[in-house]
Amino acid sequence: TTGQGASAVGLTAAVRRDPMTKEFVLEGGALVLADQGVCGIDEFDKMNDQDRTSIHEAMEQQSISISKAGIVTTLQARCSVLAAANPIRGKYDSSKPLNQNVDLTEPILSRFDVLCVVRDRVDVVLDEKLAEHVIRSHMISHPHTTTEERQSLRSENTVSDSQIISPDLLRKYIVYARKYVKPQIGSTSEAKLVNIYTELRRESMVGGGVAVGVRHLESTIRLAEAHARIHLRDYVREDDMDVAIRVMLESFIMAQKFSVMTVLRRKFSRYLTANKDASRLLLHILQGLFREALSYTARTLGASTQIDVSCEEFENQAKQLGIHDVETFYKSQLFKNYHFNYDQEQRTITKVM
Fold first, then answer.
1. CA distance 280 to 348
2. Nearest CA to 269 among 281, 255, 286, 287?
3. Which residues pair with 236 in a beta bridge?
4. Is the pLDDT confidence value at 173 over 90?
5. Among residues 194, 195, 200, which one has the least CA distance to residue 252?
């Protein structure tokens, strides 16, 4: 549904008089119909404040209480809410925290487990890939495209067929995990959760962004259980808790203004990089440096077939995240698979575009 077209009764429940029996009947709204599923709400910031307030109970208690026209009951609304909102002035201002960029109140923001700030950054490489994907999808779906042309266009996909999971198999896997897997949290993660919660509480009071409360602690527990459930585990392991803490921290840090965000990333770097695949993280850093270098070269010198990045700049960014050993990454197969070349004498990393 959309924020402009949704109302309180449309999301929760409505009471109407049956035209045949002339009695009052109860009809469930979108949250009730999405029980044990996902309810998506677009243009969430366009909803009226009274309509948004009506879903507070559903998001916190997973139920909706009804007391209308002599009907007193409670409806199940055990669903996940996926909502999207736009910035107030159409563009996200990184000098302000999230609660000052969107027209949403603190009570409704605190009820979401994860807050993601999606920004439209100019990136030459990603923009080119996105444009190619859109054009290829349009050509494949065109009615005049022949079968041979469709197969040729699909073969250009960089993901092999063995890596693709069919929607039916994925749906069955999720249903099985949700129905039969009920992971439990052990006592080993208790101290880590207490420490991260107290630190976040202290930092949220200083940063002035989204306040951290008990709901964030419950969100971390749910995320840890979900990570264990998707791996079909009966117990929440330490790496499940580390992933949950990392997701929650990323959500909290992204909701801050830029100056506070940089400080928080350094302060919580031990949690952000704990038990994380260093090679993948280093690859992400290196690809970001190459995108910046390619963008700068395209603006100043025009098109170039070879891009160089300083090893010193790459290693400094890695040290900020607590990664000091990058020599293993230079020799890894992952480094070679992405066509990077390491020049030990010049201390540069080269890639032919």
1. 20
2. 281
3. 185
4. yes
5. 200
Report the alpha-carbon distance of residue 314 to residue 329 in Å, rounded: 12
pLDDT band, residue 180 (cuts 50/70/90): very high
C-alpha separations of 107 from 88, 111, 132, 213, 343 in Å: 18, 7, 41, 11, 53
Which letter, b or e, does each residue of 258-281 get, where b requires 16 or more Cβ atoms within 10 Å of its Cβ? eebbeebbeebbebbbbebebbeb
Residues 42-96: pLDDT tens digits? 888 888 877 777 788 888 888 888 777 777 888 888 888 899 998 988 888 888 8
Pairing of strands 24-28, 184-185: unpaired
> Between 187 and 167, whose confidence is greater?
167
CB-neighbour burial class of residue 169 (10 A; exposed 0-12, middle 13-18, buried 19+): exposed
Instruction: Kindly provide the b/e burial profile for residues 20-33, where b requires at least 16 CB atoms within 10 angstroms of the residue's own CB.
Output: eeeeeeeebbbbbe
The two structure tokens encoding residue 187: 């006592």
Q: What is the 3-state secondary structure (H, E, C) of the chain?
A: CECCCCCHHHHCEEEEECCCCCCEEEEECHHHHCCCCEEEEECHHHCCHHHHHCCHHHHHHCEEEEEECCEEEEEECCCEEEECCCCCCCCCCCCCCHHHHCCCCHHHHCCCCCCCCCCCCCCHHHHHHHHHHHHHHHHHHCCCCCHHHHHHHHHCCCCCHHHCCCHHHHHHHHHHHHHHCCCEECHHHHHHHHHHHHHHHHHHHHHCCCCCCHHHHHHHHHHHHHHHHHCCCCEECHHHHHHHHHHHHHHHHHCCCHHHHHHHHHHCHHHHCCCCCHHHHHHHHHHHHHHHHHHHHHHHCCCCCEEEEEHHHHHHHHHHCCCCCCHHHHCCHHHHHCCEEEECCCCEEEEEC
Pair of tokens at residue 143: 């009615």
> Which residue is listed with tokens 């575009």?
353
Task: Provide the pLDDT confidence category of residue 232 given band limits of 50, 70 and 90.
Answer: very high
Q: What's the whole-model pTM score?
A: 0.70
Q: Which residues pair with 42 in a beta bridge?
A: 2
